[in-house]
Write a structure and sequence with these properties.
By secondary structure, the chain is an all-alpha fold. It is built from five helices and no strands. It is elongated, with a radius of gyration of 16 Å.
Length: 148
């Protein structure tokens, strides 16, 4: 059983990941509004669905631990605005590069927050969320290299 301090640390770490996932969902939705290339669209839709699923899983886990799930993207929401601006100003390649950069940041965040997690939360991240993040990172990286 987790003591209160460990539980608080776990909820805080999960909420940090949740804010990142909410930002990713916002960013991918904006990218879909701006991009028309069929191959890019399919890859972006797949990544969007993966991030939406992670938002749901993280929200449930925070609630199960007695925490209040974050509702917004917080500081990472500005990243979504950057991608939107990049897509408008520079086109598809720049938007895909920005999405890949966001995926890279998300991967680093998962790895960094992992050490703060215990029990079921750590297992969720190790077995489901981190592998999903690795897949979306790989997908955007491959798409970026295909377009360049």
């Amino acid at each position: 059983m987790l003591d209160v301090n460990e539980s608080d640390k776990t909820v805080e770490a999960l909420n940090s990941l949740l804010r990142g996932e909410i930002s990713a969902v916002e960013t991918y939705r904006q990218a879909l509004e701006k991009l028309n290339h069929a191959t890019s669209r399919r890859a972006i839709e797949d990544c969007l669905h993966s991030h939406e699923s992670r938002v749901n899983l993280l929200t449930q886990q925070v609630g199960q631990l007695g925490g209040q799930p974050s509702q917004g993207s917080g500081a990472w929401g500005s990243f979504a605005k950057l991608v939107e601006g990049g897509a408008k100003a520079f086109g598809e390649k720049a938007a895909i590069a920005a999405l890949e950069e966001g995926e890279d940041h998300g991967l680093k965040q998962y790895r960094s927050e992992l050490s703060k997690l215990n029990g079921q939360a750590r297992q969720l991240v190790e077995m489901q969320l981190l592998p999903a993040q690795e897949r979306t990172h790989r997908s955007m990286s491959q798409l970026k290299h295909t377009l360049h």
